[in-house]
Amino acid sequence: MLPPSKLLITRHIKALGLAAKRCDSDVPTLVGTVLRMWCKTAFPALPEPSLPYSKALAAEPELEAFVAVLHQLSLLEATYWLSSSYAVLVEESYRKQLAMFFTPASLTDGLLDDLAQQGVDFGRQSFMDPACGGAAFLVPIALRMREALVAKGVRPRRRLKHIEQHLHGTELDKTLCEMSKHFLRMALHSEIRKTGYVPTFKVYQANSLIRFATNLSTVDVVVCNPPYRKMTAEELLPLRDAYAEVIEAQPNLYCLFIALCVRLLRTGGRAALVTPTSFLSGLYFGQLRKFLMRNTDVEHIGMVSDRQGVFIDVEQETALTVLRRRIEEERAQVQAAVSVVSGTGQYQSVGECLLPNSGAVWSIPRAIADVRLLKATMRSAFRLSDYGYKVRIGAYVWNRDKRPKFESLQDAKQANAHTAMPLLWSRDITAGGVVRLEDTSTNHGEHRFVDPGHKTHSSVVRSPCVVIQRVTSNDQPRRLVAAAVSPGVFSTYGGFIGENHVVILEQKSDKPALPPEELAALLSTHLIDRCFRCISGATNVSAFELNQLALPNPRLLKEAIANSDSMDAAVHEAFGLVVQC
Questions:
Q1: Nearest Cα to 323, choosing from 343, 290, 296?
Q2: What confidence score (pLDDT) does residue 433 get?
């Protein structure tokens, strides 16, 4: 029999929510009731879970159906879906505050396999998860610890004692703490049934960022999928001094957790992290990258190839990173192994890359072919500024801007808005093309003109430029969708105003290295697009990342353009690469 699909399970979770409403039960009682019903038949030797229970809920057919689904899944899949059902059904604001997005079993197994290959001993070393959620890491670690201890001939009671003493976790949410402890007992059900000994696992309700501020340099292995969201000024205030060396501007919560995971390790210990990829290249993660270079060896980075379907209700690029704690030392660069990881947790090595210790972006290959490209492009010191362009973001935010707006030039003239300027939208941009703005919007109800009050307003772009779609994704054929703005836009209107989803590369001088049409063609080449993908860690095309993008020597490129049939061929020649057929 095939296991139930993700779609079917999510439908069952929605049905659970309806049952809870009918019985006027809260979500902790709902998952507690499901857990007791499940364990009653599948894990009869265990004591009853400590979570609340409802007889009325237990009689609801939706709960019986969901328990039947759990019976069809492996233990790791089943515990993942039960903890995820809790996250899905709690209030959305609470879920976002705690960033409840749990690691699927496929990625967990892949990352733990990676740790084993790096030399981690599951039968001897200590393990901690400082943001354990629903035990997505604690349970599979416990299973591997048991397997290693069995291989060593350790008896059942000693196995339980060892795992009890060498496995730790913390979590902010009380319900998830109790679920995690019971999931661990379920994982060790056979030993508990044989010995009658029920371990008291060290899973605590606590804020790890505060609790472990002084309990550092003691753990062999830290494994964590840290919560990720922007921190508020209020919650950052008591942490600022302790994490000052990695904090920049308004940091993301997972930045501090990465620093904590490293600090918890003894020298030689390892951390395995499931995080967004933004720390690899984001502007406000520069201090974190320097911290990691000083304090760790970056042994392996796995880039998850599937953005969708990895985490429930969230779409993001994901990195699986293994770090080894070292004595603090300043280094110019380090070399890291890189793999592409499928959504099912399968690793494919793509080679190695050099990571700089300047706070600059880490260029990480996303495919085997990228390794060769990065070796060539990383030697180049030339950036957009060397081509005579500066980056800015469109200033118009349609749902916030209170200035007069018009669907056509005629409407603006009828309103006597003599200083109205055309709006340039992201959808006006096509790769390698030229943007020519029309007097009337082709999309009904969309504004085409806005009146800034005077035509020299700071939001008006008056210099020749290239425009880029600001929001793209790895799933699109191109990450860099760039076009030149027609000179006619400037001669007719005197300039334009960019919408907030437009990136503008504005000429800084009268003699740029390339005119806008050729710069747009350069950015639209396959090679430059691949290079940008290797430094882009978010869905937005950020100004910081564009300014970090390696470009060929403009003098060599102009010579190559004169002797080549295409911009793609010229870029390869300027970088010293041979075009491969």
A1: 296
A2: 87
